[in-house]
Every structure is written in C-alpha cells, then in structure tokens.
Automatic annotation (TrEMBL):
Residues 27-168, 188-329 form the Type I restriction modification DNA specificity domain. GO terms for molecular function: DNA binding. One of its GO terms (biological process) is DNA restriction-modification system. Belongs to the type-I restriction system S methylase family. This is HsdS. The keyword DNA-binding applies. It comes from the Bacteria.
C-alpha cells in the first residue's frame, strides 16, 4: 500500500476572524478538548476578549498541539472558533477523504510520532513541520470509506451511550433535588460517612502502562464531566502496592478530588474496585448504598458545589482539607424518604455504570482496530 506524507495531501487551516465571533458554545481550546479521543466538552470555560481567533468549519479536524500524548482530537460537527494551540487539519486532495484523514490522525501512530518529534519538556508542543512529514498508508477511496465507516460507527455508538448516561444522571439529579426539598434537618458529613485520603506513591516508585492488578487512580484519569478513563489508567507493581495497600477505593464509594482540579465527583464502579487512590483525592464511605447514592448526588448538586467551593482555600495551589469535608453541612431526609429516593435513583445509577462498561468495550474495540488498520 502506498505510503504518503501528510503535507502532500493535507493543509493546516489558519483562517482568522474577529474575537467577537467566539462564543463558549463553539470555542475549542486545549482546555475543553478531552483526552483519549473523547472529543470536546462545551461550553468552554472562557473565550478570548481581544485580537483574532481561528475559524473552523464542519468536518474540520481539530487536534491539541500541547502535550500530544493526551490524544485530544475532535471532528467538528458545527462551525466555530479555536485557539492557536489547536491545529486544524483539512484534506486538500481528492485522493484523501476527510473521514479517513480523521482516523489517521486519531491513531496511536500519529500521536506517538507527534510526541516523539515535539519540542519542549515541561509542556511539549508538536513541531508543525515534522507533523506534515508524518507518513501514512493511503488506500483506494473505496477502502478509505470502508475503514472510516467502521471506526466512525463505533464512535457514534460511544457518543450515543455517553448521551444516554448524561440524560440518566440528569434524571437522578432532578430526583435528588426534589427529595432534598423534603429535608428534616442538617448533619455534618462525618456523621453520615467516613472520609479518608489517598496516598502518594513511595519515593522513586514508578507508574506503568503495563496492566497489573493494581490501578492507581489519579485526578488526571478523569474528564471534566467526572468520568474516569480506564484507557489512560496507570498501574503499580505488587511490591509498590504492598506499601500503600491501606489506601484503596472500593466499588460503591464516592471519589472527590481535593487538590488542583477540586470537586471532581464520581461513584466508583466495579472496574475500579480496590484501586489505589492518589493523595489528591478522598474516598467517602457510607454504611448503606442508599446513603452513598444520596451523598454522591448531593456533591453533584448546587448545595454540594457550594460547600466544596466555600471550603476550598489557597490561591496558587487550591486545596480542600479533609477536616473541612467532614464538616460539610448536609441536608438530610427521613429514612422513609431515603428508601423511596433509593428505589427511584438506584436503577438510574446502575444503568449509568453498566453503560460505562459498554463504552469501555467499544473504546477498546475502536482502539484495537485503529492500531490494526492504520
């Protein structure tokens, strides 16, 4: 099969428009592009207030050029604007379809190459000249269509499952809000659950991508919508685990980040049962599943967010102390209402967790096919 250079078939789009056209519902930066080929998350946290911004159109392929090993990529489904640290690729040859270009650019081969040829150490940046020298196989148009159709069909299923989960969690959040209005009083969080911190790795202990029995759960494993990426997970050896074995998080416990990106909330499922926990997060263990679900949705709610934000301290490096978490004021409902709440939300949460496993399977199939085909 013919090998060609990217620059001979693809151009980087650099059309600029006034910053007034940039809106957070369509502005793409390295911040809201999600790692591990998880597309983009709108709205953007901020948009430029001066100067020019870059324009992108439907079908353009946007790739973060900062820390390329995070594999941030999105094929645009709407026009918009993007930052200068995001590259915009478009085919310039009738022999290369935009869809096939997309699966080439989301392959490990491409991201590994960009990482290898990048410049800088602390925050490596892709070398545009080197990027355009990247070589890839160029099959016939018929083959390009078959390959891209297969990959993109999987990605549509992944996206659909994520949207279903978003809708299920919205229903769960609404159920919590309705029940929270029936509160009969307030209690400190420490009276409802135990709160324990994670553990820093022993000095010199390495993380590895080689899968072991012991994943090490970090804040960076989470996307901004609070979903962990098993694909990005790092692991520790049995020897290292023995030294920090008391600092694990289990299925059914609530994860809460407390340093840096504070306030990521998750309910741990079976995929991460007994994972070692970073020192930058805590686990919240309730005695019953109903209370675990209640606290999980509480921390997602406006009331929970207020407690998290108001008790966070620091400027350069923000931190939420465990003692402050234990002191959270939580509105409680009667035991009868709690059981009724659990009967409603438990099926919703169980469906979310089941869908996560299905998404993982689809992602693994997609990534394996990309490795084989590209």
């Amino acid at each position: 099969m013919t090998k060609v250079k990217l620059g001979d078939y693809v151009s980087l789009q650099t059309h600029k428009v006034d910053n007034l056209t940039a809106v957070n519902t369509s502005y793409v930066s390295t911040e809201n592009l999600q790692p591990n080929r998880n597309g983009v998350l709108f709205p953007a946290a901020s948009v430029p207030s001066s100067g020019k911004v870059n324009f992108y159109d439907v079908g353009d392929i946007l790739v973060s050029n900062i820390r390329p090993y995070f594999k941030k990529i999105w094929m645009a489904i709407n026009p918009g604007t993007h930052s200068g640290d995001v590259l915009n690729f478009r085919t310039k040859s009738p022999k290369l379809t935009q869809e096939y270009l997309y699966i080439v650019l989301e392959s490990d081969s491409f991201f590994d190459y960009v990482t290898l040829t990048s410049k800088g150490t602390k925050m490596p940046r892709g070398d545009k000249d080197a990027i355009m020298d990247f070589e890839f196989s160029l099959p016939s148009l018929d083959v390009q269509q078959k390959l891209s159709n297969t990959i993109m069909a999987l990605e549509r299923k992944i996206l659909m499952s994520k949207q279903v989960n978003d809708n299920l969690l919205e229903l769960a959040d609404a159920t919590f809000k309705k029940n929270y209005e029936q509160q009969v009083g307030n209690q400190k969080l420490e009276t409802l659950a135990t709160v324990k911190g994670g553990k820093r790795l022993p000095k010199g202990a390495p993380l590895t991508e080689v899968k072991t029995q012991h994943p090490y759960l970090r804040i960076t494993d989470y996307s901004k919508n609070g979903v962990p990426s098993v694909q990005s997970m790092q692991y520790i050896t049995e020897e290292v685990f023995d030294k920090i074995s008391r600092y694990v998080i289990n299925e059914g416990e609530v994860f809460l980040s407390i340093v840096g990106t504070i306030g990521i909330v998750d309910l741990i499922d079976e995929r991460l049962d007994n994972a070692s926990l970073t020192e930058n997060a805590v686990k919240i263990h309730a005695q019953t599943t109903a209370m675990a679900h209640y606290l999980y949705l509480y921390l997602r709610s406006d009331e929970g967010r207020h407690e998290i934000d108001s008790r966070t301290v620091g400027t350069t490096q923000k931190k939420l102390a465990i003692t402050r978490i234990k002191d959270f004021d939580v509105g409680v409902i009667s035991e009868t209402d709690l059981q009724e709440f659990e009967r409603t939300v438990s099926p919703l949460i169980n469906m979310v967790l089941a869908n996560r496993s299905e998404i993982d399977t689809l992602v693994q199939i997609r990534d394996s096919l990309l490795q084989e085909l590209i």
